[in-house]
Design a protein that fits this description.
Structural class: mainly alpha
Largest sheet: none
Order of helices and strands: HH
Number of helices: 2
Helix content: over 70%
Radius of gyration: 27 Å
């Protein structure tokens, strides 16, 4: 009885270790993929972003004293 309990516990520990390692590896792969996607998105949008001098007019139009309320 004791031997079966120890064997079952050992098998469970080994299986959980493999599952944890796989989950950790998949999470790291997902983080890497998301980092590449965000970098690509950021590079694309920075290349098409207008000059900073246009931001001032845009900011004033949306965040200035808006009396239309």
């Amino acid at each position: 009885m004791t031997f079966a309990l120890i064997a079952a516990s050992s098998v469970l520990v080994v299986l959980l270790t493999f599952v944890w390692a796989r989950e950790f590896r998949l999470r790291r792969a997902l983080q890497s993929l998301l980092a590449r996607i965000f970098t690509q998105w950021r590079n694309t949008h920075e290349a098409t972003e207008p000059d900073p001098k246009h931001h001032d007019a845009h900011d004033r139009a949306y965040f200035g004293n808006d009396r239309r309320m």
